């Protein structure tokens, strides 16, 4: 299988304190999309200071090993972010994947390429066993990203999240990595 142009140009980089301002600006630029796909936030959450604080909190979770957070780049341009949430080591060896691609980079395979890079890191370097992800039943673009990356739809979570004023259904997806014995904690 040959890589698409997007896959050749896409890279992921672990978030560092130095990149927080750029990622905060990404969130602010894509506010309308975040409001349609994520939990309600107060108006005060959409300031650069609040976004910086949110990202600092995520970096603390990365240091504790319960999250891994990358920025997505196309060449040198910041194109989005992607993260592993709720990393559970124990007997589960699992994590949940979430991502955002800037509106100016959508529809070009960027999210799928970034997700494949995270899958490789998750299974080869982090030795996770399973990744899961949810997508609103109305978010066909996100469903396509997951399916193109090889995730399998395993069910429907009814009224899973309260988003944009109502409880919304999500399709649930999974990707299994290689079977290996969990590391002893």
Automatic annotation (TrEMBL):
GO terms for cellular component: cytoplasm. Gene3D superfamilies: 3.40.630.30. InterPro entries: Acyl_CoA_acyltransferase (IPR016181), GNAT_dom (IPR000182), N-acetyltransferase (IPR051531). It comes from the Bacteria. SUPFAM superfamilies: Acyl-CoA N-acyltransferases (Nat) (SSF55729). Residues 10-178 form the N-acetyltransferase domain. Keywords: Acyltransferase, Transferase. Transmembrane segments: none annotated. The keyword Oxidoreductase does not apply. One of its GO terms (molecular function) is protein-N-terminal-alanine acetyltransferase activity. Belongs to the acetyltransferase family. RimJ subfamily. This is GNAT family N-acetyltransferase. The lineage of its organism: Bacteria, Bacillati, Candidatus Dormiibacterota, Candidatus Dormibacteria, Candidatus Aeolococcales.
């Amino acid at each position: 299988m040959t890589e698409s142009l997007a896959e050749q140009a896409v890279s992921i980089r672990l978030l560092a304190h130095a990149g927080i301002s750029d990622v905060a600006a990404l969130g602010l630029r894509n506010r309308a999309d975040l409001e349609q796909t994520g939990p309600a936030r107060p108006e005060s959450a959409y300031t650069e200071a609040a976004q910086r604080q949110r990202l600092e909190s995520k970096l603390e979770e990365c240091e504790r090993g319960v999250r891994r957070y990358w920025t997505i780049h196309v060449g040198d341009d910041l194109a989005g972010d992607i993260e592993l949430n709720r990393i559970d080591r124990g007997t589960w060896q699992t994590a949940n994947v979430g991502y955002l691609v800037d509106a100016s980079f959508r529809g070009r395979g960027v999210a799928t390429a970034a997700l494949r890079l995270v899958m490789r890191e998750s299974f080869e370097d982090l030795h996770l066993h399973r990744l899961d992800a949810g997508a609103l039943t109305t978010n066909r673009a996100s469903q396509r990203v997951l399916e193109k990356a090889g995730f399998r739809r395993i069910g429907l979570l009814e009224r899973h999240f309260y988003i944009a004023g109502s409880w919304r259904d999500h399709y649930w997806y999974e990707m299994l990595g290689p079977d290996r014995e969990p590391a002893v904690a």
